[in-house]
Design a protein that fits this description.
By secondary structure, the chain is of the alpha+beta class. Helices cover about 40% and strands about 20% of the residues. The protein contains twelve helices and twelve strands. A hairpin with a 2-residue loop joins strand 7 (about 150-155) and strand 8. Mean pLDDT is about 85; it is low at about 1-5.
Length: about 350
């Protein structure tokens, strides 16, 4: 959504407003001080201009970006904070960098706290990261004061970092809902994973054969259980996420899990599965980048419900077209939140399932 004015935040001593290309001289000076940029990259003028243009694009496209930290007493630009979305991690990071003569006065903590508070207020994200060089003690201490906790080691632009995370419910004081979205996000964060974006692709005629091959591979691990292909990839001609959804009715939900994880390489997200009743969910090859989903159920009604909607889509081209249009809209809206995308489809599926007669067995 295009912006028409500078974003503005205020604290007791500071004013935070959108950094623009007009700030290039002060931005360049900030990034040329060797003490300031010891753990980040120095910039020449062309690089500084491009970084500010990139931030302006991010403001336009995502509604956040770099913020200038301005002293309310005197109007000096003390540094910058801001939120940045990293597509390779599919995470939003809070960052801060202040002039050397602004150190030791609490400005960085004050500005970063306002930035994080604003981030949780305007973005529907379960956590914010801070990616900090392992030797950057000052930033690590600041992150700790705000409540960030080290989560994993990673590499950012070729440099090692410790990724610290601050969860929404820890910041706001609200208890998190015990739902699948929160659980899935926590599973990924704990594992250092980043969920792949939601993408709807045209129907692939190879999907049925892909299912058959996987069913044959899993059959020895689910002896006596029929493995069914359901979901959009099971409907000829229907555009879908390129993930094969499978479901099997089993007498014991937990008994097959060790074999499926050890012998077949499936992932079993613990926190996510703790939210499920009469169902277990596994994915392959990883929770972040999935080509197959396997749902185990111990109630025939749950199996029949899934297969009913698949059969309805196969038999009703108008309904299938309506469903594809909805999925494309939701995929654009929830591109980086797979669980939100799935939740948003549920009302449509439920409403049409209610209108269906029991499936013939």
């Amino acid at each position: 959504m295009p912006h028409r004015h500078l974003r503005l935040l205020t604290t007791q001593r500071l004013l935070l407003r959108e950094l623009t290309s007009a700030d290039v001289d002060e931005f360049l000076a900030l990034h040329r001080d060797p003490d300031v940029v010891r753990f980040v990259r120095t910039l020449d003028r062309a690089q500084a201009q491009e970084r500010l243009r990139a931030s302006e694009r991010e403001w336009t496209e995502r509604g956040h970006g770099l913020l200038a930290v301005i002293a309310r007493d005197g109007g000096r630009l003390l540094g910058r904070v801001g939120l940045r979305y990293w597509p390779q991690f599919q995470e939003t990071e809070a960052g801060w960098l202040l002039r050397r003569d602004a150190w030791g006065h609490g400005y960085a903590t004050e500005a970063a706290r306002a930035c994080v508070n604003w981030g949780f207020a305007v973005l529907p994200i379960p956590y914010i990261t801070a990616m900090i060089h392992p030797h950057n003690t000052r930033s690590t201490q600041l992150a700790g004061r705000l409540g960030f906790e080290p989560a994993r080691e990673d590499v950012l632009l070729g440099d090692p970092v410790i990724v610290h995370t601050l969860k929404r419910h820890d910041w706001t004081g609200e208890m998190p809902p015990h739902d699948s979205r929160t659980a899935a996000a926590e599973d990924l964060a704990r594992a250092g994973g980043r969920d792949a974006q939601v993408e709807i692709v045209d129907y692939d005629p190879a999907w049925p054969a892909t299912f058959e091959a996987e069913r044959n591979r899993l059959a020895p691990l689910l002896q006596g259980a029929d493995i069914h292909h359901f979901g959009s990839t099971a409907v000829p001609g229907l555009a879908a996420k390129p993930v094969i959804d499978m479901i099997a009715l089993v007498p014991d939900l937990d008994a097959p899990i060790p074999g499926l994880t050890t012998d077949a390489g499936y992932q079993f997200p613990q926190a996510f599965n703790a939210t499920l009743t009469h169902r277990r969910f596994l994915c392959y090859p990883t929770a972040a980048h999935r080509t197959h989903h396997l749902h185990l159920v111990d109630k025939r009604e749950e199996l029949e419900r899934r297969l009913r909607f698949r059969d309805r889509l196969r038999a009703d081209p108008a309904l299938a077209s309506e469903y594809v249009a909805l999925k494309r809209t939701l995929a654009a809206r929830h591109r980086y939140d797979r669980e939100a995308y799935t939740d948003a489809k549920s009302e449509f599926i439920h409403s049409h399932d209610q209108a269906l007669p029991p499936r013939a067995t």
